[in-house]
Amino acid sequence: MQRLGEKYQSVEAFGWAARDSSGHLSPFVFSRRETGEEEMRVKVLYCGVCHSDLHCLKNEWHSSIYPLVPGHEIVGEVTEIGRKVSKFSIGDKIGVGCIVDSCRACESCREDQENYCTKSVATYNGVHYDGTVNYGGYSDHIVVDERYAVKIPHTLPLASAAPLLCAGISMYSPMKYFGLAGPGKHIGIVGLGGLGHIGVRFAKAFGSKVTVVSSTAGKSKDALEIFEADGFLVSTDEDQMQAAMGTMDGIIDTVSASHPILPLIGLLKPSGKLVLLGATEKPFDLHAFSLILGRKSIAGSAIGGIKETQEMINFAAEHGIKAEIETISMEYVNTAMDRLAKGDVRYRFVIDIANTLAVTRS
């Protein structure tokens, strides 16, 4: 059955989609639009698996549009360009993150913060301005306006660069915006998962002191030895948490599962900031005095604008920052989702689209 606006799309595409909130993915033939004057057609090479993909597949945010092709950590190669494209050439390796359009006129857009545009268009599970439903990077190709793509430097391994387009910018942006990036700053990172492990690497590259806070004591070895964090706290160990009270300039909380934040606020110095990245289902238990008495603050942050994403990618290339990944085939994706739901991944799944998607087409 044709979906909203699909009669205007004429280029066949192939990917894997979920048809309902079971979240089960299977082969899916669909159509994408013709390449516009300012657009590029991009052969997808790799696509990272974000926890948001799992939320959307299961309709846990009550906004899923089925059939749903996930994927917003896309690395690919430009195969076709519109006549007005000036930033990219055929053969360029490019990245596409969480948004593929915005209003281009609001204050956020004018300040290169398209991610906060109220009319931004999601890479998947969104409706484009032309009325067509967007499908993500678990597919053979995509079409994107050149304004919403970034160049991948040749020094970055393509597969491990993919998670930087969501997880990477999600950590980089708040470190920069909230003044936590640089020598003399002590950052706490809550959760050593897909976001947290990249955050540790960025913090170290900035010259900040970084302490990982986790409920899983077994992650201490990875945190300290592989990612070279300066410290590790078990969040359920009251003695450890008490000893670290008032020592951190800022904390970036990546955890989406329900958890207490009052102990985290206690770790902050006066005027410290707790920045939330994880979208927890239940409201937090928060006492006003925990903020008032130390002039502390709680904020949120969501990815970053395209200009800042390119800055982040360039910084990662310069400092050798990449995600720790497990590369998987397209056929393995449902197993990967089951593992992701259990937290069984070190530390980000990346699908090898170029080499494993086509063989799944019967």
What would you note in describing this structure?
- Strands 3, 4, 5, 8, 9, 16 and 17 form a seven-stranded mixed beta sheet that branches. The protein has a six-stranded parallel beta sheet with strand order 12-11-10-13-14-15. Strands 1-2 form a two-stranded antiparallel ribbon.
- It is α/β, with parallel strands linked by helices and 362 residues long.
- The chain is 24% helix and 26% strand.
- Mean pLDDT is 95; it is low at 1-7.
- The protein starts with 10 loop residues before the first strand and ends in a 6-residue tail after the last helix.
- It comes from Brassica cretica.
From the structure above, extract its key features.
single chain; 362 residues; alpha/beta; six-stranded parallel β-sheet; 17 strands; globular
Low-confidence stretches: 1-7
- The SSE order reads EEEHEEEHEEEHHEHEHEHEHEHEHEHEH
Largest sheet: 7 strands, mixed
List the total number of helices: 12
The amount of helix comes to: 10-25%
* Euclidean distance between termini CA atoms: 20 Å
Which structural class do the helices and strands define? Answer: alpha/beta
Number of strands: 17
Radius of gyration: 20 Å
Structural shape: globular
| Average pLDDT, all residues | 95
Approximate strand percentage: 25-35%
Short description, anyone?
With 362 residues, the protein is an alpha/beta fold. The protein is 24% helix and 26% strand.
Summarize the helices and strands and which ones pair or pack.
Elements: E1 11-18, E2 25-32, E3 39-48, H1 51-57, E4 74-81, E5 93-96, E6 99-101, H2 107-110, E7 121-122, E8 141-145, E9 150-151, H3 158-161, H4 167-177, E10 186-190, H5 196-206, E11 209-214, H6 220-226, E12 231-234, H7 238-243, E13 248-253, H8 262-267, E14 268-276, H9 289-292, E15 297-300, H10 306-319, E16 325-328, H11 333-341, E17 348-352, H12 353-356
Parallel strand pairs: 10-11, 10-13, 11-12, 13-14, 14-15, 16-17
Antiparallel strand pairs: 1-2, 3-4, 3-8, 3-17, 4-5, 5-9, 6-7
Helix pairs in contact: 4-5, 4-10
